[in-house]
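In response to reviewer comment 3 from the previous cycle, which asked for concrete evidence that the modeling workflow produces usable outputs, we include below a single protein chain processed end to end. The sequence was submitted unchanged, and the resulting structure tokens are shown without manual editing.
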Amino acid sequence: MTSKNGLTNMPKTIWNRAASLALLIAAVGCSPLAAGSTNAQGTATTAATVQSAVHPVSGLKVIPLTVTTASGPHVFKVEVAASPAEQERGLMFRTAMGADEGMIFPMDPPRPAAFWMKNTVIPLDIIFVGADHKVLNIAANAVPYDLEPLPAFGNAAGVLELNGGRAAQIGLKPGDSVTW
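The workflow returned the following structure tokens.
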């Protein structure tokens, strides 16, 4: 049986329970914890910690990377170019990158490496990292679109690309450590 407003006539207690349950579901879904807050253990949570971060332009996984220089640690959020296709594309065609962003090209096993700037719009610092996670050498301010190969001075376990001039800003030098 339905009432004038089209709702089924239910006993009041069932209706009240259903309404209470709907309000509870709405409250939980809109709670600060769901959007980013502190859980019962006092640990900060955000949507990013619940699922791994993905870069909005490249679709690549984003991880923290720490560069330790004489002035201390510097943390970057870097995209991981893991597959051969991802490494081939790298930062080509990108027009901007944040000051504390970059891209890491892991190489396992470590091997000789050389990078060029084909189709790369922004100047980059290309940092070659050895198997011991120490900087081998830095190709600073690589020129956009330049086809000249920029080689590692030894076998690279990874290559880190940052905005051109960023390595100098943080005092990055060969022998400094890079962890990811």
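Residues 52-179 form a domain with the Jelly Rolls fold (CATH 2.60.120.1140). We consider this sufficient to address the reviewer's concern, and the full set will be provided in the supplementary archive.
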